[in-house]
Amino acid sequence: MPKAYEVIADDLRRSIREGERKPGDRLPSETKLAEVYRRSVPTVRDALRVLREEGLIEKEHGRGNFVRRPRTLAVRDNRRHQWEKNRARKPLTQRAQTGATERDTGLELQDLVFYAKYREIKAPKDLAEAFGVPEGTALLERTYRTRYAAETAPFNLVTSYLVRDMVAENPDLLDDRNEPWPGGTQNQLFTVGIELDRIEERFTARPPTPEEAEELELPPGTSVILLRKTSYDIHDRVVDISDVTLPGDRTELLFTTPLERW
Predict the structure, then answer these.
(1) Which CB contacts under 8 angstroms, 24+ apart, belong to 41-50?
(2) Where are the domain boundaries for CATH 1.10.10.10 in the chain?
(3) Rg (the chain; Cα; Å)
(4) Domain 4-67 top-level CATH class
(5) Is 236 left (phi over 0), alpha (psi -120 to 50) or beta?
(6) pLDDT digits over 190-235, tens only?
(7) What are φ and ψ of residue 88, in 5° steps?
(8) Residues 150, 156, 157, 160: what is their CA dihedral angle, to the nearest 10 degrees?
(9) DSSP reduced 3-state for 152
(10) 137 to 21, 62, 96, 233, 237: CA distances (angstroms)
């Protein structure tokens, strides 16, 4: 037999999924819900906690509980890299029209808010080994955040690393004021004569840190997907390493593998 808070949660869940309560609607107060369901306030709180953990509602401090607005879905597929390479040598006017985030989300350039910050760091042991350079080598660390203008959370958290001396020939690549860069990293590398041969992507998952949960506005219990993206050039050098943290509640990973004919 279901517990009292589960019965309340079931009824509220049904009302949300059937559209009786729409995204952004405020739920009645805990006291009012207790009167409606003829249960105690602590029982109502337990029901609301279940719905928050499911990502159906969210609590705003001092305002109450609201039906959660669905975040924009980003579909990340493995064909995006060839798409980016095909664009890398296009004229600026064509490259400036759209980018990878627009491709993944279906949004337009004017719908997005973009942030980038560069800084120079000394390569720690793990990155030095991955790049095949001495520990302490100068790296360009690039932090990116892109969000839909109608939302407050970014689509993901991105930190990218380049060997500074590898790209310093073009000083524009060292200045974050040139972001967003039309054509992305593949065009940036193209400006210094680097062509990518392949991209390796490794995915893992774990619970978010408190900082990640806050920045990505994750519902309780939502995992993050961790991506380590390693780009190799045609001379088999590692030329870019990116660490991407993807929110598990609004990221879809799609892999299409062409098979050779017998």
Answers:
(1) 43/4, 43/5, 43/8, 44/5, 44/8, 46/5, 47/5, 47/6, 47/8, 47/9, 47/12, 48/9, 48/12, 50/5, 50/6, 50/9
(2) 4-67
(3) 23
(4) mainly alpha
(5) left
(6) 999 999 999 999 999 999 999 999 999 998 889 999 999 999 999 9
(7) -60, -30
(8) -120
(9) coil
(10) 56, 50, 33, 19, 16
In single-letter form, the type of residue at position 62 comes to G
Report the pLDDT averaged over residues 140-146.
98
| Rounded-to-integer distance, Cα 168 and Cα 130, Å | 20
Per residue in 149-165, pLDDT (tens digit) is 999 999 999 999 999 99
In whole angstroms, how far apart are CA 15 and each of 9, 70, 157, 253?
10, 16, 34, 30
Tokens of residue 140, six digits: 């360009």
Helix (H, G, I), strand (E, B) or coil at 65: strand
Give the architecture (CATH level 2) of 74-254: 3-Layer(aba) Sandwich (3.40)
